[in-house]
Amino acid sequence: MRLFSATLATETNTFSPLPTSLENYRESVFFRAGEHPADAPRMCTAPLFVARARAQAEGFELIEGSCFAASPAGTTNRADYETMRDEILGQLKAALPVDGILLGLHGAMVAHGYDDVEGDIIERCRAIVGPKCVIGVELDPHCHLTMKRVSNADIIVLYKEFPHTDVVERAEDVLDLVLATLRGKVKPVMSVYDCRQIQSYPTTMQPMRSIVDRIMAMEGKDGILSVSIAHCFPYGDVPEIGTRVLVIADGDKKKADSLATQLGEELVGLRGKTAPQSLDVAAGIAEGVAFNDLPVVVADPSDNAGGGAPSDNTDILKHIIEKNVESACLGPIWDPIAVRICFDAGLGARIGLRFGGKIAPSSGQPVDAEVEIVGLKRDAWQRFGPTQVPVGDCAAVRIGGVEVVLISKRTQATGLELFTNVGIDPTQRKLVVVKSTNHFMAAYGPIAKKVIYVESSGPLPRDHRKVPYTKVERPIWPLDEGASPRGLIY
Question: Please, which residues have CB within 8 angstroms of residue 359's CB and are 6 or more apart in sequence?
Answer without folding.
Answer: 17, 18, 310, 312
